[in-house]
Specification:
About 45% of the residues are buried. α3 links the parallel β1 and β2. This protein starts with 8 loop residues before the first helix and ends in a 10-residue tail after the last strand. The protein is elongated and about 85 Å long. About 40% of the residues lie in helices and about 15% in strands.
Length: about 325
């Protein structure tokens, strides 16, 4: 059954035929007892419903299936939740051979638990302290989007952030926020604190942020930088609902290249979470198969895709 030598072809053929007739499938649990391996890779995700996370999980799963590995999804169900039980019991009980951590800030005790597992680990979509990662340079991506608006001639630019107040030490929104502010200041532009709004990395959050921006008294921005496409789509929806023309009266740019971005004509800084997840899983599998040193940090590519949501200001 295992394809080992010293078995005659006739005997092998006969046994395999009987196994096929009986519908026999080798037990991965029994194999794990013999090898100490589960052939299972865990994916630790703060959410599974949001675009980046679901696409990254898809990429991990593609690589695992190609190499006959199983995927164990460890869904935190949002930041907070019953994280202690997941960290102390799920991973430390050796149910997985390796782990992919998706875009997640971790508490010191949680980082300690991950180090105690002594299994290969790669972060995807954002840095995790002390581990290798596959992700874009979030600072440069946000800088590229902001410079695009400035080069079009915009001087009054608002920002919709994706910061989640419940999360500790989550680097991605902070990097994008800092890049936006520093790029404005470097161009000699004024940063307006009242034009910095939280959109929670969701379409609904983008709608709420846009409503606050449009309802606020005083001067209005001519452009909005959004730290994710989902929030940018929400801003465009609210603008259209109010009769604000995009891009004639308001330019909008995002980050990600969400699957709806092209249909919406959204200018964005594109990344590919499917490929990031796939690369991370491939490295882990090779490491597990004995290629020591395969797991490393990789800077994922990104590019500005200019579509119809951005244009020079009309006022």
């Amino acid at each position: 059954m295992r394809g080992l030598p010293r078995v005659s072809p006739q005997t092998r053929e006969r046994i395999l035929a009987i196994a096929s007739e009986m519908g026999y499938v080798a037990s991965s649990a029994a194999s794990g007892l013999a090898t100490g391996r589960t052939r299972t890779v865990g994916v630790l995700a703060p959410y599974v419903s949001r675009w980046f996370f679901s696409r990254a999980i898809e990429g991990v799963d593609i690589a695992l299936q190609e190499n006959q590995y199983n995927l164990m999804l460890i869904n935190l169900g949002g930041y907070g939740g019953n994280r202690e039980r997941l960290f102390e019991h799920t991973m430390l009980r050796k149910q997985i051979d390796a782990l992919v951590v998706l875009c997640l800030g971790l508490q010191p005790s949680e980082l300690e638990h991950l180090h105690l597992t002594e299994i290969p680990l790669v972060a995807v979509g954002g840095p995790v302290k002390g581990f290798h990662q596959v992700c874009i340079d979030d600072y440069q991506a946000a800088q590229l989007a902001t410079k695009h608006l400035i080069e079009l001639g915009h001087r009054r630019i608002a920002q919709v952030l994706g910061d989640d107040k419940d999360e500790v030490d989550f680097a991605v929104p902070k990097l994008r926020d800092r890049a936006f502010e520093e790029t404005l200041l470097a161009a000699g532009l004024r940063f307006e604190p009242g034009w910095e709004l939280n959109g929670d990395f969701t379409v609904a959050g983008g709608v709420r942020a846009a409503a606050q921006l449009f309802d606020a008294p005083g001067e209005k921005p001519t452009a909005v930088f959004c730290a994710s496409d989902e929030m940018a789509l929400g801003v465009i929806m609210e603008a259209q609902r109010r009769g604000i023309r995009v891009p004639q009266e308001l330019s909008v740019v995002g980050i990600d290249n969400h699957e709806f971005a092209e249909a919406a004509g959204l200018t964005t800084v594109a990344q590919n979470p499917v490929e990031q997840g796939r690369l991370a899983a491939d490295m882990l599998i090779k490491e597990l198969d004995g290629a020591v040193g395969t797991v490393r940090s990789v800077a994922a590519p990104f590019e500005l895709l200019v579509r119809s949501s951005t244009a020079p200001p009309s006022r």
